[in-house]
Amino acid sequence: MAGKNPIAEKIHELTDRNLTFMHVCGTHEAAIARHGIRSLLPENLKIVMGPGCPVCITPQGEIDAALELAEKGCIIATYGDLLRVPGSNGSLESSGADVKVVQGVHKAVEIAKTTDKEVVFVSVGFETTAPTVAATLLTRPPENFSILSCHRLIPPAMDWLLAQGEASLNGFLLPGHVLVVTGLSEYRRFPVPQVVAGFEPDDILLGILMLVEQVREGAVRLDNAYPRAVFEEGNPKALEILHKVFEPCDVEWRGFPIIPKSGLKVREEFSAWDAQKKFGIEFKPTKKHAACICDKVLRGIASPTDCKLFGKVCTPRTPVGPCMVSHEGACKIWHHYHVKNI
Amino acid sequence: MCIAIPAEILEIRDDNIALVDFGSLKQEIRVDLVDVSVGDFVLVHVGFAIQKVNRDEALETRELFRQCYAAMEETA
């Protein structure tokens, strides 16, 4: 992005007041930091992170559940991001358990086909990812395969954030690949400016510009800055498959209380592949590290650099909280790109 | 986590598996979630196609990814 960016210039021209927009997507945060997008924006326009990193918002109790399954002798398959997230007693990586990093759930099923051992896929992710797991359960995988469902849905978390009001937001930059699946309609109920954006630097800048324009107009609508992939109806086939296998449930998010209907549990008819039922596993509440402020970072009311532990006690090698673990965690991203403050 | 990359469907195989071309990488992916034919472009996330996308725009995005990776290699 050498030279002046015309979209960024337009944003400068139109920003005539203090504005705070929240994105709800770790992939957006990674792109924003990598391309230095905050440095292109006016000082009075802040982009804050919401609870958009699925690994970061997975509470410690769910990591503990995965560790409990590993102790029972199960092979744990999951995405690489989850390995170092600290539970109450170490991480999957430090547990010495048989942990396999996989590209997706279908690769975990392949592992199950080659062993007599139990294989549990620790299944994190939002609406983008959950249909891939649902589709896999519909193929009726082998008996020694099951999933630990840690899925979360974005709109209920946005409801909570708006009701709370603590982040005083002027609008949301919506996560492009979540809306690729869900479509737009579910988001129309939110009484704030919203723009769904893609992941190239210009996609993100365009999304921000469209938010600024809405604020200036005094408008409250949902605009689409990613029309090459996001359609009104989303992907109806993926949604149908998702709802066939999963049903919404009340769950805790790291940094948040229990949010009604914000999680996904495996429906009764697929319970043979539900690791919680199969092994009698419960998610137990746990206490967080006293000084860690990941909870506030995830709610958009603190930046990673506000944390006393950031870059000192808490580093990507010695993470205290989940935001320093995931490649999409705000703290790890800021640490990597040496971001000092917004 | 929600990264999704465009790829072209080269071949459709049994059991909802397709061979796709990401530009410099050919890989088998799952197509349970989309109705596609050879030549279509799809967005691929964790080894699954999650949406069909416009061919021209997909090619453009792929070119952008290529440039990004080339730039990242230069600075690495």
TrEMBL record, chain A:
Superkingdom assignment: Archaea
Keyword Metal-binding belongs to the record: yes
Pfam families attached to this UniProt entry: HypD
GO molecular function, one term: iron ion binding
GO biological process: protein maturation
Keyword presence, Isomerase: no
Keyword tags: Iron, Metal-binding
NCBIfam families in the cross-refs: hypD
Family label: Belongs to the HypD family.
Name recorded for this polypeptide: Hydrogenase formation protein HypD
Origin organism lineage: Archaea, Methanobacteriati, Methanobacteriota, Stenosarchaea group, Methanomicrobia
UniProtKB/TrEMBL annotation, chain B:
Gene3D superfamilies per UniProt: 2.30.30.140
Top-level taxon of origin: Archaea
InterPro entries xrefs: Hydrogenase_HupF/HypC
GO molecular function, one term: iron ion binding
GO-annotated biological processes: protein maturation
Transmembrane regions listed in the UniProt entry: none
Protein family according to the UniProt entry: Belongs to the HupF/HypC family.
NCBIfam families: hypC_hupF (TIGR00074)
Name by which UniProt lists this protein: HypC/HybG/HupF family hydrogenase formation chaperone
Originating organism: Methanospirillum stamsii
